């Protein structure tokens, strides 16, 4: 491994991330078709308190204000996702100009503010019309996705520097097809590996489509995939726990990147899925492994793992670490895991540039702030971010080529099945008035952004007010 100096390289991106369904609101406005998340959230019992993305943070309409906040925070990048059914209301076929124009305006607004857009093509909101055709269980989904992606590459390829294909394939499959906690809410060991394979083929097909597009062929913009990695570590040194940890690691962390970079699936998966594990066509791995430009890593926590006989399908479970701090969503705060996963991607898979595309924590915070509140103090989030950005610095010092860090999330948004009950934002959002109030963590990120990370060692970073900008 080459050894880089232990500082953030020039041009390192300091950003925040969101996703379409979680923030936009107006899901059916301007000609959009419904997505699976629209349907799921409107099914009683699926989302806490019956919350939906009907209004969310109203970002579809209030994006100019949100871009102004990002400018005040000195961000150099914003990671957003495009809702497929705003562009192709039926998933395939006719393009909805109004949807495309909405994103073009946002992207132009970001560029005018000096903020680089990183655009995710799929952050879980499949067009409902495609779910009616089998969704990710249909092998044609790879070409549906490539066609949709091509529309965006042609329309916006001249100004988007970074494209991400799929956000967190593991969650798409685990939540959507294995355990059913997320849309479309299926629970099947037969569907999950097939859906995973098609999601990966869709990723490869989109990369191929990008290379064939005008921007891609001209070398404008770079494309990658975003995975969530949660290092699995054995809770004890009992052989059963070590074996369970290997299964959990294969099922969550190796399934997707092994396929992309090593051209195969981990052998543990056949045992985990049993009869549900299909025979795959080896030729598909050429598409899945289509060379790309970067890898995004979303990191929140680790999984301390123990053997759990009978627990479907991995026979493994995450246990609590009694000495550790936990966030409001019950995830262990474990910053060194971020250094570990970044090094691990570099060592096991690739020397491509990496981005930390999501990192952050949910904390219990009031839904409504006292009138005239100018700033919400969130010292635990500042400490979380400080420790995790330091973990990124450690990875860079160890020779990993990390090019950017995106906090999750810009806004308190719809946390999927938890509705609005879990707050991850740098900006507090009152969902009744849509008033945004900066948290101290927004100031902390501002200090990092303007100093290219030097503020990490400044105890006072985060105490300053966000500057006013023109
Ligand atoms: C997802 C986000 C989500 C966050 C916190 C990631 O799995 O990409 O959409 O809100 O984690 O749960």
The low-confidence runs, each spanning 5 or more residues with pLDDT under 50, are 1-6
**Secondary structure: helix percent:** 25-40%
The top-level CATH class is Alpha Beta
Rg measurement, Å: 21 Å
Q: Describe it for me?
A:
The structure is a single chain. The chain is an alpha/beta fold and 470 residues long. The chain has a single domain, classed as Glycosidases (TIM Barrel, Alpha-Beta Barrel), CATH 3.20.20.80. It has helices at 20-23, 36-41, 59-72, 84-87, 97-112, 128-131, 141-156, 169-178, 191-212, 214-217, 239-262, 268-273, 284-288, 336-348, 379-397, 440-451; strands at 13-17, 77-81, 116-122, 162-167, 222-228, 232-234, 294-298, 303-307, 316-318, 354-358, 402-408, 427-429, 436-438. Strands 1-2-3-4-5-7-10-11 form an 8-stranded parallel β-barrel, surrounded by 6 helices. A hairpin with an 8-residue loop joins strand 8 (303-307) and strand 9. The termini are far apart. Residues 1-6 have low confidence and may be disordered. It binds beta-D-glucopyranose. The site of beta-D-glucopyranose (BGC) has 10 residues, from loops.
